[in-house]
Amino acid sequence: MVIRYSFLFAVAAAAVWAVINLGTSNAAMYLVDAGQSGGAPTNPSFWVLGAIATLMTLSLCRFVIFGLPSMVDDWYRDNKSWFYTILLGGAAYGYFYLM
Fold this sequence. Notes:
By secondary structure, the chain is mostly helical. It has helices at residues 2-25, 27-37, 44-78, 80-98.
């Protein structure tokens, strides 16, 4: 599950980077192409990449809001005894260290 969302995050980051890079690095080329075509400049790849980046960003935000608390809850329920053991052991170590 974590690998799935890390992959989605990587693809979303790549799409956002491509949208930003497309607008900044190739601006002169698109202006020349628009001037030669004689029509209004249309750039469907820009809008497709923008839509993909938006949908993936919204999907990741939905995962963080709804999925992450249940994953942490399941992890805590499975590791509750180890959590308290380490917490009490750290408190005892701190007590003896400060004495």
